[in-house]
Amino acid sequence: MVQGYRTGTPIGIGGTVRRRGGGRQEAARRYSLLPLRIFLGVTFLYAGIDKLTDSAFLHATGPGSIGELMHSVRGSAAVPALVDLALKSPSGFGYVIALGELAVGIGTLLGLFGRVAALGGALISLSLWLTVSWQSTPYYYGNDLVYLVAWLPLLLAGSPLFSVDALLAARRRTP
Known about the structure:
Order of helices and strands: HHHHHHHH
Radius of gyration: 22 Å
Number of strands: 0
Largest sheet: none
Strand content: under 5%
Shape: elongated
Number of helices: 8
Structural class: mainly alpha
């Protein structure tokens, strides 16, 4: 059987090839980061609320406390100095992480300063990976590395759709 190719392919502006169904493909491209944004936003919002409402987590000592967690990972952390810093005030560190997760989750869901929120999420994930989940073997068992990488597309793209950022940008464009 002879395979042929079609000649006379329509060429669009700028010499790009136009294909049928381009509207659906373009829509899929435009909306492709939305599920990731929703997932990360909800996850970080939930994580922040969970930490703030856990009666044991924000204590410096005791079962289930941030202090106990930090002491348990001190020897296996990639950057023990970060753990030492957290151990200076475990409760304060717990509040910073919880409030940071809340801010990142809300910012991501609303698309308010989307790139800043993504940067915050990436930094939280990086700090948790270098301390709490560093000892996970094999490395892909630790979820903090996956979260770190998941934040990168949102850091690059921002929140161009269904966001406060998009509304503000549209307002700036219209007199």
